[in-house]
Amino acid sequence: MKKNIIIFSMFLSFFACSRNENKVGLPDNPLVIGFSSSYFEKLTDNDINFLENYFSKDIGLSIKIKKFANSVDLIKDIGASKVDSGILTLNEYFIARQDYKVIPILQAIRGKNEKEYYADLVVLSSNKDINSFNDLKGKKIASRDPYSISGFILPSIFLVKAAIKPEFVFTGSHQESLKKLEEGSVDTASVYEHMVKGDKKFKVIQIMGPVPNEPWICRKNLRKDYCQRIENAVESLNKTKEGREILLKMADIKSFDKVSPQEYKELYEIIYNMGKDIYSLVPDSVVLKKINEPYYFD
Predict the structure, then answer these.
(1) In sequence order, what are the beta bridge partners of 175?
(2) Contact status, residue 235 vs residue 35, Cβ threshold 8 Å
């Protein structure tokens, strides 16, 4: 009898935690927009409130923005239908697309309508001991995190090809990577190109790219009309002064444009084909989801 009670309790608990798809967007079951740490780290509580109110009004549903400091948690919540939409870093998108077939609906645009970016592997200009990849053996490289294309994936590809195994130090942000470099606690850092361009404090070892800008996604089983409403609302965000200011805080985004999964195929295949070697550079203590299937989706 006691065993039956436990099973029944687990049954009730499972359904209590499940979301009712027909009621997504109602006040007691809001549509959840997930933000990876790259996009909320500079946002204030007022910025988040503005976005929730703006999206609620424009989409016509109750909206909740949820912030994720951990990429694994964000990807798992998308898979469990606890997150309905959101902006992901490129590698987070690759994993979420592979595992849960998320749908990219928009692509971030920066600068002068730029849909791709470059990264730089840099050292301090005063460092005379590091002038090329060959000087990086056994050195410490500051990287945002193992899901960062600019901070980890791109330099790893170059390092693997050069048969060099450095020590990666994950800092949590590109700004913190440069800070650690200036402090001298690491030997080099891999960051967005625009962050060091023209700055005489830094010496560029390698320019890496181009890389397609990251997508705004919807989970696969979200209602198509809801996904379309989200797309329209995100596209219109830069039409307001507050929206433009918030987008710039979200990794220097200017606007969004429509995108197809095919835009990301080439880079995905590069990572997939080199994945075994790339991921070998991740410290053992780091929990990481990986690209482990070929690019078979359209």
Answers:
(1) none
(2) no
In 112-246, the DSSP E strands lie at 116-124, 140-143, 167-170, 188-192, 202-212, 215-218
Residue-level pLDDT at 100: 97
Helices (H), the chain: 2-17, 37-40, 45-59, 71-79, 90-100, 154-161, 174-183, 224-236, 241-249, 265-279
CB burial readout 45-65, b (16+ within 10 A) else e = eebbebbbebbbebbebbbbb
Q: What domains does the chain contain, in order, with CATH numbers? A: 23-113+214-259 (3.40.190.10), 116-212+274-279 (3.40.190.10)
pLDDT in tens, 80-100: 999 999 999 999 999 999 999
Contact (CB, 8 A) for 271 and 92: no
Q: What is the pLDDT of residues 276-288, one digit of tens each?
A: 999 999 988 888 9
